[in-house]
Amino acid sequence: MQKTKYLLPYTPPYDWAWMSRFLSARALAGIESFEQGVYRRTIEITEQGVTASGWLSWRPLEHEGTVELEVSDSLEPHIQSVVRRVRHLLDLDANPQLIAETLGLFGDDVAGMRMPGCIDNFELTVRAILGQLVSVKMAATFCARLAELCGEPVVTPFTGLTRLFPTAQRVASLSVEQLRAIGVQAKRAACLIGVAQAVQNGELPLYGVEDSSEGIKRLVAMPGIGAWTANYVAMRAWGERDIFLHSDYLIKQRFPNMTPATISRYAEIWKPWRSYATLLIWNNPNWKP
Asked: Which helix (H) or strand (E) holds 169?
């Protein structure tokens, strides 16, 4: 029987080449794949006390202004949740014309840019922690090793998609020594375990966060998490669209001879879309204020 295909509309333009490069560079072995324009990954969803695991697959249909989504039979009862997560991952609800009205100084670069979100907020937080002070490739390697260490096995019809990303409960049960064995620095390992335990105990809410500023405060209060990591989580996990990472290394390079405070004041012109401005400056080495 042919699988149901769901069409997720969006407002063009959309820079699919850039989004594909972004996601491909961060794809986790065993969990994600991006081949010939088709993205696939494993996923686990818990709703109303019911947990289901399986896989999803999507590809853009640019000529139609939609994304074609397929899911495993096990996820069909949770299709609305899957659709929400994919729309969030790909920022499909963005209004590019409205954003361009404020960020027009970036020229043609702004037209199809989207803010990459995530499939799961805890997963994104783990990625952000393990990505501190390392390359994108190394961060993906650490996350893949973590999944191999404690991610639950899952059966899919796709070669290489064999694991679920670890839950907070599984990460919370690890020791610093176990994480050090896969190359994670001791302080970062302790931070990761602490965050997982706080999420598991309900002390650190990562889902349904409506007040990003309060969420950022909670994250920064966790040992090992600084302002950059907390704001990055707010941008990608919680969909906060008005954050400018003025203390970021690359951002400071683009604003030579300016202090972070001066850079922050400069960025006021991009309200309420400063998260997109951060992304555009990151990806344009020739940009100058």
From this structure: helix 168-172
pLDDT at 277 exceeding the cut of 90: yes
Class of domain 241-289: mainly alpha
CA distances (Å), origin 175, targets 138, 182, 188, 207: 21, 12, 12, 25
pLDDT for 125-180, tens place per residue? 999 999 998 999 999 999 999 999 999 999 999 999 999 999 999 999 999 999 99
- Residue 23 CB coordination number (10 Å): 16
| Active-site residue flag, 120 | no
DSSP state for residue 241 in the 8-state scheme: -
Query: Which one of 15, 91, 120, 248 is the catalytic residue?
Result: 248
What Å distances lie between residue 14 and 19, 37, 64, 256, CA to CA? 9, 14, 12, 31
Element holding 38 (H helix, E strand): strand 38-47
Domain covering 121-236, topology: Endonuclease III; domain 1 (1.10.340)
Work out the burial of residue 97: count CB atoms within 10 Å of its CB; fewer than 13 is exposed, 13-18 middle, 19 or more buried: exposed
Q: Which part of the chain is CATH 3.30.310.20? A: 6-110
H or E segment at 45?
strand 38-47
| Residue found under tokens 């853009």 | 60
Reduce the secondary structure of 261-287 to three states and give it as a string. HHHHHHHHHHCCCHHHHHHHHHCCCCC
Report whether 220 contacts 230 (CB < 8 A). Answer: yes
Q: What pLDDT shows up at residue 262?
A: 93
Strand partners, 58: 39, 69
Cis status, amide bond into 153, omega within 30 of 0: no
